[in-house]
Amino acid sequence: MDFITAMGSNDMGTLALGLMIAGVVSGLVAGMLGVGGGIVIVPVMYHVLAAMNVPENLRMHVAVGTSLATIIPTSVSSLWAHNKKGAVDWELLKRWIGPMLVGVIAGSTLAGWAPGQMLALFFGLVALPLAANMAFGKQTWRLSNHLPRGIGGSALPFGIGGVSTMMGIGGGMLGVPSMTLCGVPIHRAVGTASAFGAIISIPGAVGAAIAGFGASGLPPYSLGYTNLLGFLLIAPVSFFVAPAGAAIAHMTDTNRLRRVFALFIAVTAAKMLWDVLN
To answer: How many domains in the chain?
Structure first.
């Protein structure tokens, strides 16, 4: 409550504007490149909260929790669309949903316990190689001709669920390259990964709300580490802007778009690392 009463109308305007910018950028990216917006929402929201002087130990927690909440409606919509095209591997999901949920619980627990600076460091260190893969990775690269079974078959979805939850992303950024490297066709991988968002975001957002319950210094309209204002501004804006991103994609070279987006990820992640290490 102290933070809420200390905020003026200018701070609220900054928060609202920053959230809407995050929604616009994430919607464009989702439409242009077919990836979730969490990788955009988290760093943008982190820097907006920093500009508002939200306590450093809370910024990353709120950014991650809010991002997970905004992924819920878009992931459900995406799953519905991909399923209608027959692009979802439900047999794989049946095998992966258990270990992935365990990974989400583990990631949510670690994220709630970890200091904000550690979460920011983790995000930056993982985001940089993801950006490099997006810029230079080839869909033809293979580590195997089939997905792992046994312990490896459980460890992979566990890791995707845990790491994605700690980063506040929907799982596609990790899931799609993991599957294509193991011989899954790209369209099948994208369609199946659309279900990861629902599996990860719903329990992840609930866990963030519980972990931050009663924390002091939270931004206004926060339910634990999930900011309701962020959800209400980012999710609808992202949803309505996504078709514009898809239209742009048909008029522009996709590889160039991927490199531009990768550069954006790399710059925002590097800035986050700079803030944490200095």
So the answer is: 1
